[in-house]
Amino acid sequence: MKVELIGYDGRVYTMPTVLRWRLLRTGQVPCDDLEVTCVYDGTLLGVMPEISRFRATENGVTALSGVVDEYAAAATEEGLLLTVSGRGMAALLLDNEAEAATYQDTTTAEILRNHAAPYGIVCRRARELVCGGSYQVKSGSSQWKALSGFTHFTGGFVPYFTASGELVAEPMARSGQRLVIDGGTPVLRCTRREKRYGVLSEVLVKDKTRKTEQRVVNRPFLNRGGCRRQVLYTPGRSSYAAMRYTGSYQIEQSAQGSSQIEVKLPGALAAEPGDWVELSYGPLGLSGTYDVVSAESRGGPEGATTTIILEEP
Predict the structure, then answer these.
(1) Residues facing 18 on adjacent strands
(2) Dihedral sign for Cα atoms in the order 130, 132, 133, 135
(3) If pLDDT is split at 50, 70 and 90, which confidence band does 249 have?
(4) Which terminus of the chain has a lower count of CB atoms within 10 Å, N or C?
(5) How many CA atoms, within 13 angstroms, populate the side-chain half-sphere of residue 226?
C-alpha cells in the first residue's frame, strides 16, 4: 500500500514504510474509510497540520482518495509510528448541511449544481432525471441526503462514489465486474447472516392537515410473522404518491442488511461495491447471484485479505 498525503496547498508527501492498513469500500453510506499505520521518522510532523487529502494505491491501482480526518504519532513497543485515518469524498457531502428548500420540476443537473459542485465534487456520469411536481430538502438534511433523496425518489437508486473520489449519479448495482466463487476458490471464511430486529412490517403515514393516512406493509415480512409498526407524520397536504413513497422508503431502509453473506478471501482489493458474484458454496448450501455491497481489505505482516458483504439483488 502506497499512501500520498496532500496539503491544502497541493503539495504531496508520501508516507514512509506502511506496516498495516484497513480499507472499507461501500461507495455510499457508511462512508468509505481508510486507516494506515507507518514507520514514523519525524519528517512529516511539521506538515501534518496542513494535510487535508489523501490518495492510496495498491500495486498501482487506486484504492481510495478522500479527506484526512485524523492523525496520531505514537511511541510504542514497535517504535515510532504514525497513523492516519480518513474517509472517501462522500464525507464532504455527509458533513455539510443543506439549506431547507422546495424545488419545482427540478432535474439531476440542478440538484448536482446546488448540492455537490460547491464542494469540489466531480460528476461525469449522471442519469438525467426530472422530478415532476415538487421535491423538498428538509431542514437539517446533509448535502448527501439532498442528493440521494432526489435520485431515490425520482429514479429509484442511490448515487455512489468511485475509489478515485468521483461521484456517479447512476445505480451502483452491476456497475463493476462479474466474479465467481465456487469450490475452486480459496475461501478463508463464509458466513450467512439474517436479522429480524429493526425490520419494519408496516408504516402508517399520516397527513394531519388533510386528515388522511396511507398504510404501507412489508408483505413478505408480515407473512413470516414479523410485527414492527412505525407511524410517520408528513408535511401538510402531502400527495398520495409522496405518502406511499415515504412508507415504502422507510420499509426499504429498515430491511437493508437484514440478509447478508460474508465471504473472506485472500489478497487485497479482491472485489469492490458494484461487482456481482456468482456464488456456489457447498458447506452452507449457498447458490445464486449476489451483489457486492461492501468490501473491507486489510494488510499487514500476516498478509492481505478482503472481506466482502453480499446481498441478493
Answers:
(1) 38
(2) negative
(3) confident
(4) C
(5) 24
